[in-house]
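Table S5 (text form). Sequence records supplied for joint modeling of the two-component complex.
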Amino acid sequence: MAKSIEDFLVELDTNSKLLEAYKKDPVATAKKYGLPDDEVQIIADKKWDELSKRFDDTSKTIRVINY
Amino acid sequence: MAPPQGKENSKQGSLVIVGTGISVAGQMTLAAKSFIENADVVFMGIMNKVGEHVVSSLNPNSVSLDDLYEEGKSRAVTYSQMAERIVEAVISGQNVCAAFYGHPGVFVTPSHEAIRRVKALGLEAHMLPGVSAEDCLIADLGIDPSRFGCQSYEASQFLFRDYHIDPYMTQIIWQIGLAGEATLSVLNANHSQSGLTMLADILSEHYPDDHELIIYEAATLPICEPKIQKVLLCELKHAKPTLISTLVVPSLGMPAYRQDRLAKLGLTEQQVINYRNPSIN
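The corresponding structure-token record, covering 348 residues in total, follows.
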């Protein structure tokens, strides 16, 4: 069963061996992890802004009033 | 031993506020993870869906606070409602964890407010430290805040009040994407141009026009790099910051020694230079 890119990102962020493998060969590492083809393609195409937009909601980053 | 009669109803709630770090999972401390796992309910102010996924996996009874943000609504109201939601859960007798991205006490109004209100009720509340955007900035840019000293402040607060820049210290100016925005009702960085121009003018009083500044954004995803954009001071007013952009103004260098203070301490300039020279000591 294909794994989710969310789980892949979490694993990359907490598993230094996987991160090193990813840095050497991102696409092969993503495929070996079990990402579906369309998500491997995002990595192959280096669509980082698309990924950030998919997961980050910067409109909700501000959380302070000081002035 | 069986709990005393009525113990369930008289259970006192408590609050712990934790940070999940800037990245999606790897900067969460072991202690924060444990408090998330063991809470009756977790409130999340994380702004990243992968980060929310991590927290929800640790504790299925996790609820986002993000629904309280609305374009056109004052963030003063939003933050008050966030604190209210957290405090209400504590009052109902639950062991509550509130998880905010980054450090939960750095540039976070509702976390401090919730702790203050819970303590005022005589209930237990505390905060755990987390990895903040400033921590990421220090690591990514190789800036040691102790090298020249550091002034760190929020852009609008600096513009609105009578603060003073020490150009010999590193300046870290947060939330430049909202510079000069007073209504608290916008959730984008499209209104910062006049504030940014004013900030550039103030900086020009202290630094040369060709002083190189850094507009920085920490990476939230492990496959992305931090955004590090170098701009000259004279170009700053044309910059297009986002809501997570931070401006770093490098120091002009070390200020001169204060000979009068050294003399009062029985020291000379040459002595203190020699003391810290490894080839002499």
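Note: The longest helix of chain A spans residues 5-14.
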